[in-house]
Amino acid sequence: xxxxxxxxxxxxxxxxxxxxxxxxxxxxxxxxGILSFGTRRMLSLAILQLNEILDLSSSELDVSILSSxxxxxxxxxxxxxxxxxxKISPTVEVSSLEQPMHQSTPKSKRSxxxxxxxxxxxxxxxxxxPEGPIxxxxxxxxxxxxRSEHCVMMRIVVTFLTHHCTMYPTAAQKEALARAIVTELxxxxxxxxxxxxxxxxDDTTGDSLKxxxxxxxEGHEHFYNKGHGCIEYRLxxxxxxxxxxxxxxxxxxxxxGGNSEEQxxxxxxxxxxxxxxxxxxxxxxxxxxENSTSLKRAFRATHSHRxxxxxxxxPSITDVVNNYPRLxxxxxxxxxxxxxxxxxxxxxxxxxxxxxxxxxxxxxxxHESKSIQALVDGVDxxxxxxxxxxxxxxxLHKSKRAKGDGKHAATSRSATFNYLLQFRPVGSDVxxxxxxKGEEYTQPFxxxxxxxxxxxxxxxxxxxxxxxxxxxxxxxxxVLFKVHYIFNVAYAIQLEDVYxxxxxxxxxxxxxxxxxxxxxxxxxxxxxTNINHP
Length: 534
Description:
mainly alpha, 25 helices
């Protein structure tokens, strides 16, 4: 133990008792000849730790510490104390002071270990850290943290965690830290509910939540929940600096057999005679004013068969449109199909974007990084939708591209936006533009024919074909989101978090099994942003 070694080397020679030791400061250590700043600091922190976690009034503990120190003094030669300039947390456990900060202490060598129900003093640790007061001030003023502020806070609290519980804390310890964060800093709690809907009553039992469409989140899950959350992600980043011998080996997932759920038998995708007649009617009758109602009726009648066909055969967008060509020349069928898949959810984006999300996204952007702030500086009120959409993409940007030659290539924020929306001058042939699209754009995206200072007409580019998507950006984004579900196609990996944010927070068609920290942070920031509508 570092404190024991220093006691035998320096303190015992000056007849310093335990009571005197508990009250000594760094200046006192300097007066008795300990010139190394690192050694004095480590002594001070070790004494502080002892005062906090040990019951020094117990005579048995006093005797064990002092007797151990005196017994070692006879066999320990007086040598200069090791100097160190690294900083140690005031609450690091005494036994861990012997080892480098980045190493984990073997369980068998711990002289003290926090229990899983330990209390983490979040506010105190932030106040004691040089950068911590900035975090508390930001929360007090804005009620949320920017991305950079959030990263600073996570660095502080996870450092505290690793100093107490080694580099591999238990799941209960990580959850205790997550709960402590949202308990002492309730502004960071995220329950999945937002101001764009009616709040839940005080009765928040599972049954009432289910009835009202709420969630069972307690508010800390985006910090840690079953191996996910920003605490876990920060720990993985910190562990990268560990020597290979100190890293835990990943467990292999072995299928022992016999316990896996049986897969259901595939349903027959061959339509009945009546359904086939409806499909043929839609295929060979272009829409007119007279047969529009009949086409919609036939489309609804074949919905179940179409979902089975798409889910089991996994056809391309082109194959689906070839079988159901009215999806291309009757865009309203996309809304009908989505509403049949998710009853009551089809109009959520159009209803909430302008009334809730647009102005809040622009407001939150003013406190983010300079590249995001630049999006909203002097924004034209007429381009508010485009600006807010860019903010959403920039804040939930994923800098990874799909695997090509075995490596991931980074994608900039501006390049990522091209996976959502691209512009072409008015007069361009949209079908030719779809044929000439870049090979990297494998998932559906929006193509806009743009006039000077005005957005014109939007099309969805899927495979090498186009589908009309309306004349406004909001309408086009609504259709683009629905197309992914109707045609059963995956999100572009660069926009994965953007679409997931819309699915979870706007459309509310996806249950949150795992709460992604970046999505929860943005949702909380929007919920705590006050917008005064005229």
